[in-house]
Amino acid sequence: MQVIGVTGLPGSGKSIVARVAKNMDVNIIRMGDVIRDEAIKRNAEIGETAVKLREEYGDYVVAERCVELIKEHSNDENAECELKFIIEGIRSPYEVKIFKKNFKTFKIIAIHSSPKTRFSRLKRRKREDDSSNVAEFKKRDNRELKFGIGNVIATSDYMIVNEGPVWKFKNSIRNILKNEVKKH
């Protein structure tokens, strides 16, 4: 089983990585979906839920739930071929530790975009947890940085700077994914 993690601050382009991977028949697990689902159950805000989950269950909780999802998927009777997964939204070294423990060939792709570019994207995207307020944007970045995302980015296996045209970004993603698929 091949598992690749994707990390980056909000608006950097993680979801584009997931879309490209999906088009290459790679299964997608979104860490944010685990938190969003929990937020719905709790009738709470997503950011608040992300913090509370880790306070209640420890720093490993979201990663552990993702590992469970991958293992459930790989136990399906349709899973006879070599499975490939992208885990979108890794934020902490604790999560990396869990994934490396469970998947021996685990790699990380980090996506970097400037704050100005990311803020512009988030304003256009208008997802529930996105804000068009600069102060809220900075607050969200700081929360992500407190989770340890900076360390995850710094120790990633691959780094893609996403500041140019989207076609160029997608080509970089495809090249990395093709390279990783060949190895396994």
UniProtKB/TrEMBL annotation:
Belongs to the UPF0200 family. It comes from the Archaea. This is UPF0200 protein ASJ80_09170. It comes from Methanobacterium bryantii. The keyword ATP-binding applies. It holds the Pfam family AAA_17. Keywords: ATP-binding, Nucleotide-binding. The lineage of its organism: Archaea, Methanobacteriati, Methanobacteriota, Methanomada group, Methanobacteria. GO terms for molecular function: ATP binding.
